[in-house]
């Protein structure tokens, strides 16, 4: 403006300066809300800033943290994926995405994302540690499913028992393992055991269709037609 002043440009510049001041004010408020653990307010303020500063990786990472705290992991993943593209060698974003997928029980996507982290830095301690855990779990689940396809139900049950030992901290893996054990017992005509395990699954997930079907099959084996 100083080099070439004109009315139109001055108006535009003043508007941009005002907007810039406003965004800085919102940014301070968002950080303050985050520090006070008012994540809902922080998200609302960050939404406003990001509608203008679309390519700001740090703000997206901050909003992702808020989404995680608010129990909205899929929204956090969306922001972290954008941050991973916007910032070079963003191993931290890939690590966080992998962890979220893992907590959600999606071991295959978790493995895929943690590999992206290790491509950028093969010595990344957190990513390597997570990679070993997810790879081991993934291998056990694949192996168990292979046994089921081959009709080797006892072997599959043993393998799913191993899955529960490998990951005792994240409840969804135990639930999924029990769901598959319930299926194996039913297929293996171990009706009493099948009913017991299927019922455990259905106490956690009353609308689990697979467990309902497998328990129904087990009831048929016991001539319990009403059930």
UniProtKB/TrEMBL annotation:
SUPFAM superfamilies membership: TPR-like
Assigned keywords, A-Z: Disulfide bond, Repeat, TPR repeat
Biased composition (Basic and acidic residues): 8-21
GO terms of biological process kind: protein folding in endoplasmic reticulum
Pfam families assigned to the protein according to its UniProt record, in alphabetical order: TPR_16, TPR_8
Keyword Repeat: yes
TPR repeat residue intervals: 91-124
GO molecular function annotation: misfolded protein binding; protein-folding chaperone binding
InterPro entries attached to this UniProt entry: DnaJ_C3_Co-chaperones, TPR-like_helical_dom_sf, TPR_rpt
Ranges for region Disordered: 1-21
GO CC entries: endoplasmic reticulum
Keyword Coiled coil listed: no
Name by which UniProt lists this protein: DNJC3 protein
């Amino acid at each position: 403006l100083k080099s070439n002043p004109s009315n139109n440009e001055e108006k535009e510049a003043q508007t941009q300066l005002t907007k810039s001041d406003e965004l800085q004010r919102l940014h301070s408020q968002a950080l303050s809300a985050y520090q006070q653990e008012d994540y809902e307010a922080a998200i609302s303020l960050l939404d406003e800033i990001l509608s203008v500063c679309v390519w700001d990786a740090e703000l997206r990472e901050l909003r992702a943290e808020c989404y995680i705290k608010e129990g909205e992991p899929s929204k956090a993943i969306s922001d972290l994926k954008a941050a991973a593209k916007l910032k070079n060698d963003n191993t931290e974003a890939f690590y966080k995405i992998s962890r979220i997928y893992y907590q959600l029980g999606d071991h295959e996507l978790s493995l895929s994302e943690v590999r992206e982290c290790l491509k950028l830095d093969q010595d990344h301690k957190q990513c390597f540690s997570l990679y070993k855990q997810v790879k081991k779990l993934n291998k056990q689940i694949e192996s168990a499913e292979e046994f089921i396809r081959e009709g080797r139900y006892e072997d599959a049950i043993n393998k799913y028992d191993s899955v529960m030992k490998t990951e005792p901290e994240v409840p969804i893996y135990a639930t999924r393992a029990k769901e598959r054990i319930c299926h194996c017992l039913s297929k293996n005509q171990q009706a009493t055991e099948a009913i017991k395990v299927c019922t455990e699954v259905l106490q956690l997930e009353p609308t689990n269709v697979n467990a309902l079907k497998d328990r129904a099959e087990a009831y048929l084996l016991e001539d319990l037609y009403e059930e």
